[in-house]
Amino acid sequence: MNELVFFINNVVISGLTIGSIYALGAVGITLIFSILRFAHFAHADLMTLGAFYAFFLTVMFPAVGPAIGLPTAFVMLPLAMALTALSAVYIDKAFYKPLRSHGVKPIVIVMASLGVTLMLQGLIRMFMGTSARSMYIDDRKGIHRIELPFELANRPVVLTDPQILLILLLIVIVIALHLFLTRTRLGKAMRAMSDNPDLARVSGINTDTVVKVTWIIAGSLAAIAGTLLSLDVSLKPDLSFHLLLPIFAAAIVGGVGHPYGALAGGFVIGFAETLSVFNWAVILRPWRDYLWFDLPANLAFVSSEYKITVPFFILLAILVWRPTGLFKGKVL
Questions:
Q1: pTM score, two decimals?
Q2: Angle at which helices 13-36 and 185-195 pack, to 10 degrees?
Q3: pLDDT digits (tens, 9 = 90+) for 144-164
């Protein structure tokens, strides 16, 4: 039972946490691709920007969270989401919309997004420096130890406040996004524009409004992912460097342009990473006397320094087996 609890703590909970982060980022990427038809490489920097907005608000109002029993950064999350969404809308207005109005090819907009990436990274480092920061000012990260009702289980299942809030919030977001895309007029307009932009424009759909709403949703989800990840670990200016490749891999594995596929792809990549660095020797210890080989102290597929390569092995395998991803891409 102790080995099982160790597996739950280091694989199940960790996989759910990082998979939720990747899923939120991948949904934003796939929405932008399905509506605007380009890969937004600055999306991970929006996640970092949203986390820094939450940090600034936490520094300004550090006592708000302890007063209601929640992390201050989580309480300030709605404001951080609004600021990130506003930043995303104005980034589009300043950099991407002029290019679209001139009818440039999508690859040109992709290169522009790389320029936006460098710009955002430079601004973040200019104002925040390069050191890691804690999101907790007047409060502390809550850690919950859940004892299992088994005599052989001496280890508790450990959950933190950010992990619980992240999983619960993801469930709410999935339900809300599904209802928005399937029940509301604006959501149906987004699906129509994703399927055929020219036909949607001819049909009288306000494409400018659809584009703005797309950026608002993508920016809000980026702020949620960046803030909750920073609450669970720490806030680093180079956060985007560690997020960009996995969230793109998640979007492609799930099916580019399909938000439900992006959610599935996020968890595939998240669990693949955690399973690859997990020490399987712990699970095999009770059966060491029955094994035909000497059990090493560490039996992980890859070391933690190389787990960034795991998403690409999964990506290549999925693309060879199913080129459109787990879900058929390019549609909402």
A1: 0.91
A2: 70
A3: 888 777 655 577 888 888 999
